[in-house]
Amino acid sequence: xNSDDLDTVAILHDPVRRAVYEYVVSQGRDxxxxxxxxxxxxxxxxxxxxxxxxxxxxxxxxxxxxxxxRRGPGSGRPAKVYHRARGEWQVSVPxxxxxxxxxxxxxxxxxxxxxEQAEQAARRAGRALAGVGEDLGGVLRRRGYEPYEEDGPDxxxxxxxxxxxxxxxxxxxxxxxxxxxxxxxxxxxEGLGADAEAARxxxxxxxxxxxxxxxxxx
Amino acid sequence: MRAPKHSPELAGFVAALDPIxxxxxxxxxxxxxxxxxxxxxxxxxxxxxxxxxxxxxxWESRDTLWDFIYRSGHLAVLQRRREWFLRxxxxxxxxxxxxxxxxxxxxxxxxxxxxxxxxxxxxxxxTFKDFHGxxxxxxxxxxxxxxxxxxxxxxxx
Lengths: 218, 157
What we know:
- Chain A: InterPro entries: ArsR-like_HTH, WH-like_DNA-bd_sf, WH_DNA-bd_sf.
- Chain A: This is Putative ArsR family transcriptional regulator.
- The structure holds two protein chains of two kinds.
- By secondary structure, chain A is of the alpha+beta class.
- Helices cover about 50% and strands about 15% of the residues of chain A.
- Chain A starts with a helix and ends in a 5-residue tail after the last strand.
- The mean pLDDT of chain A is about 90.
- By secondary structure, chain B is of the alpha+beta class.
- Helices cover about 30% and strands about 15% of the residues of chain B.
- A four-stranded antiparallel beta sheet of chain B has the order 1-2-4-3, sandwiched between helices.
- Chain B starts with 10 loop residues before the first helix and ends in a 10-residue tail after the last strand.
- Classes of the chains: A alpha+beta, B alpha+beta.
């Protein structure tokens, strides 16, 4: 276990701080102090205190931005805004290192040309991940995907995923990992008794590459 | 390719050519690509074997090219590659740096791919996995890539 990672993660122990963190992360954009305070239901100064603690720990990043379109005298200083930092922290007690092994295995799959079998295995694993009586949102949240809803270009509802649970591997082996992730998601749909084809690839920078069409999964 | 370009087996791939080419040309960092004849569904004409399809383009940086390949609508097409292309045991894509303004030739690309195959990744011919930065000032050159060199065994390669 990396003790620095433990220190970082441990600062989320405070329930108000954790609520502030989760609110900022769930927005996927810059969030100001007033907005965070209102969302969590605490005073602005307390929200600001926790936001700055989260920046100090490296979990959030801060910047300055004008929150209104007004310019010139009287428009005020730019406001301090916050968004999720790019880094990731892992804590396991006792120490476990599945990531290194996953990277080695991904390379082995590439060398063996075993991507089709890897995708089939991911599909089977996905089916097993869907619990009895759960809905898609619940399964995705539990696996760390951070689902959110959005209107698609044709007006149909989409479920997008703010977080890629396999980020490091997806950067190193994008085609293998994103294809496996798509099959994992399709397997989840099958496990839930929904149409597997509701999941497809529509990647965006900084998010998970899979998107669900809502019509088929509700 | 698993079948000739104008066969029913390749129809899905051919239909994706125009939208994906437009996506590439509109993508941040796109500089130039080698175009083929016969309109929007044209592919690069070459003498390297009938079952070989070639993508040949110039990009400003590694990251802009990576974002286009893996973080755009291109990924969904790439994910379906096995419907249209046979697996290649040898490397089939290569990148290298060129001076700004240089327009590379296909022969140059094939020579770099040959280098990658015989010598492995070097600063003169490399891949995303074993990337080499630009010579001199980093980020000033153009990354170039030949992608989609996926022949049926490609004996000529």
